[in-house]
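Sequence design from tokenized structure. All designs in this work follow the same two-part layout: the structure record, then the generated sequence. An example of the structure record is given first.
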């Protein structure tokens, strides 16, 4: 897959900056999914790249931001999902940020549940997952 192929399918990523990030995620996507049939491999590569670019955009500093250690640290903080809440005597519970899916961890894609692209990719990966036999 090339950057032109990717942006033709997902035009919302056309002009993504920095271009080196787009190129790197496309390189990573091309290196993965070799065991998939060609049609599924292309879809998986597009979804992987879109997922990674979305995750990158969430943590990247705005172009007009003045870089500082605190701004960089704040941009890179993981967003925590609220897993529980209580109204009386206010209480909030956050997820630990770890994935319970051994498939995601095993494939190095533990953050797939964070984007719609990742969820689609996860369902595609599950089609190719081989069950593990434990005697």
């Amino acid at each position: 897959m090339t950057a032109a192929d990717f942006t033709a399918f997902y035009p919302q990523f056309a002009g993504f900056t920095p271009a080196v990030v787009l190129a790197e995620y496309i390189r990573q996507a091309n290196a993965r999914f070799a065991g998939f049939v060609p049609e599924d491999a292309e879809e998986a590569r597009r979804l992987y790249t879109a997922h990674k670019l979305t995750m990158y955009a969430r943590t990247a500093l705005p172009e007009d931001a003045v870089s500082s250690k605190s701004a960089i640290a704040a941009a890179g903080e993981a967003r925590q999902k609220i897993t529980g809440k209580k109204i009386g005597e206010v209480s909030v519970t956050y997820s630990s940020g770890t994935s319970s899916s051994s498939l995601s961890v095993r494939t190095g894609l533990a953050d797939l549940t964070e984007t719609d692209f990742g969820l689609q990719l996860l369902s595609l990966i599950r089609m190719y997952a081989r069950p593990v036999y434990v005697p």
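Residues 3-62+70-128 form one domain. We note this feature because it recurs in several other targets discussed in the main text.
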